Amino acid sequence: MNGEPLAYRMRPRTVDEIIGQEQIIGKETGLYRLIQSGRVPSMLLHGEPGIGKTSFAYAIAGTVDKRFVTVNATTSGKKELEDIVHEAKMFGEIILFADEIHRWSKLQQDYLLSYVESGFITLIGATTENPYHDVNSAIRSRCNQIIKLQPLQPKNIYQLLDRALRDEERGLGEFPIQISEEQLLKIAHGVNGDARSSLNLLESIVFGSSKDSDGTILVDDQIIEEFLKSKGFNHDKNGDYHYDTLSGFQKSIRGSDVNAALYYLARLIEAGDLPSICRRLMVIAYEDIGLAGEPWKTILACDAAKQVGFPEARIILSHAVVELCLASKSNSTYLAIDRALADVRSGNFDDIPAHLKDSHYMGAKEMGHGINYKYPHDYPLGSFGGWVNQQYLPDRLVDRKYYKPKDAGNEKRIGAIYEKLQGFKKGK
Questions:
Q1: Who has greater pLDDT, 297 or 139?
Q2: Residue 24 in contact with residue 149, Cβ under 8 Å?
Q3: Residue 349 in contact with residue 337, Cβ under 8 Å?
């Protein structure tokens, strides 16, 4: 056995050896039948690191038995692409696998366009980023398919591990290994759908285990725990998955699902990104809880979490998340400002009423500014303080109603005051 990592040696050789991704390339899919017929469309593959993008491309190339060239966009230059194009012109179609394709400059991407269109190059690009954000639109338009690979389920990871243990040619089948089904499942559940990590972790566990007098490798739970722990939690704070996690976090709180919100919070805590957590919690407090609850409490919680830091901050954050999940909710103020912004941005505005204009400078009164302004504090209104009926909105917008109160939590009281004042304006 050579020194190549197990994950490299166990790459699927054809699409029939791909485990998982059945919804994309299972035997009943059009893509599977297309590839089996010898045709490969240009495509973009995206997904988390270790999810199998490179293996997917290798399996396709192995199925159609065409020349397959790989480049890494972080290191390849235009000269390398020119050499690949020259080879394609001389000997026919090449399947070009470009890893981290979003790293190519616009010049490099543009250079390939005509050769992809003409069929000299079949492009399979892979990226950990969202191709709709980070890949040149011209390249995207030449790719027949944009495919998001999904993290493998533990049952799929188990299949990969079991195959590697049985394969005597590429895997670990030549070694006498004593490992139970339960232990394989523990590994499968501990890698977060990362196929590459699972295989390389298995290899480390096997060769890190002790042997009995007969040379049998004895895998015990302690070794598995040790290597799983050392692997750590992989979470790219700048990647799409980070923002997807934040999105799931906010939507779970908005939907009052305490358990889902705590799960996403746990992932963000493990990523160690306290600023992102606090920023999102403060947005949630005012966007989704709003006047119905007490968003100021979240500000205090976030300030406290920042002061104490991890690991204790997890307690404060958990408290804040549960409270937000179960709080009464209103998005009335969020909708109100967006309605007002829509008027401003569409040009639907008018001059400020003269009596509201600044009158604290010489000549202001001669311009009519501030005249007839009524100071609300001079007009007591019960326990409310002071209020007087006068026009504040510009003439063209005088009847606009941006704020529409909701009958939820604390906003029931605030909304009732609003409606009463609106009634006073109409003389009711």
A1: 297
A2: yes
A3: no
Give the β-pairing of 210-211 and 217-218.
antiparallel
**pTM over 0.85, yes/no:** no
pLDDT digits (tens, 9 = 90+) for 355-406: 888 888 877 787 888 889 999 999 998 888 899 999 999 988 988 999 999 9
| pLDDT, mean of residues 173-187 | 93
Q: Are strands 43-46 and 145-148 parallel, antiparallel or unpaired?
A: parallel
Would you put residue 65 in left (φ > 0), alpha (ψ -120 to 50) or beta?
A: left
Domain ranges across the chain: 21-148, 154-231, 240-326, 350-425
Residues 410, 418 contacting (CB under 8 angstroms): no
Residue 236 · residue 244 · CB < 8 Å: no
Residue 108 tokens read as 């490099």
Give the span between the Cα atoms of 111 and 84, in whole angstroms: 12
Give the span between the Cα atoms of 192 and 150, in whole angstroms: 11
Domain 154-231 sits in CATH 1.10.8.60: yes
**Residues facing residue 97 across a β-bridge:** 70, 124
| Listed residue (285, 264, 275, 280) closest to 309, CA to CA | 275
Q: For residues 58 and 72, give the distance between their C-alpha atoms in angstroms, rounded to a whole number.
A: 14
C-alpha to C-alpha distance for 336 and 414, rounded to whole angstroms: 15
Q: What is the DSSP letter of 421?
A: H
Does the domain spanning 21-148 belong to CATH 3.40.50.970?
no
Place 240 in a pLDDT band, splitting at 50, 70 and 90.
low
Q: Which fold has domain 240-326?
A: Zinc Finger, Delta Prime; domain 3 (1.20.272)
Tokens of 105: 């400059």
Q: Find the length of the chain.
A: 428
**Per-residue tokens: 421:** 């004042």
- For 389, residues 6+ apart whose C-beta sits below 8 A from its C-beta are 424, 425
Pair of tokens at residue 222 = 């302690």
**CA 65: distance to chain centroid?**
36
